[in-house]
Amino acid sequence: MPWQKLPASQYRTLLQKSLATRRSQILDLAAEVGPVIEAYRAQGYGYRRIAALLNLSGYSPLRGSTWYPTTVVRVWRTYTTQPVQLKLSKPPA
After folding, report:
1. What is the C-alpha to C-alpha distance for residues 15 and 52, in angstroms, rounded to an integer?
2. At what angle are helices 69-81 and 8-42 packed, to 10 degrees?
3. Residue 77 lies in domain
4. Is 91 inside any structural domain?
């Protein structure tokens, strides 16, 4: 198996990079779809209806091609619990 040939330190480094990339993708999706979910929630729609509307509107989840109510809830929770992060082009002096 290929992963057994890597030294432990190299394996940990690759795993950390992979997890950081995945987390970044999740936050990007939440930033994109979160306001849409928020608008639907404000109109009183449930998660099942929001999933159906997202499927019709062309938004795609990270995995697969279909939104499910559980996926909507998870993205919504990520969107509402993440602090706002400013992306600075250079560090402050």
Report:
1. 34
2. 100
3. 7-81
4. no
Query: What's the rounded Cα separation, in Å, for the pair 47 and 72?
Result: 6
Asked if the structure places residue 1 within a domain, the reply is no
Cβ neighbour number for residue 27 with a 10 Å cutoff: 15
Residue ranges, the chain, pLDDT below 50: 86
3-state secondary structure of 87: coil
35 part of a folded domain: yes
pLDDT of residue 21: 79
Report d(CA 22, CA 69) in Å as an integer: 21
Q: How many domains does the chain have?
A: 1
Is there a domain that residue 2 lies in?
no
Q: Is the pTM of this model over 0.85?
A: no
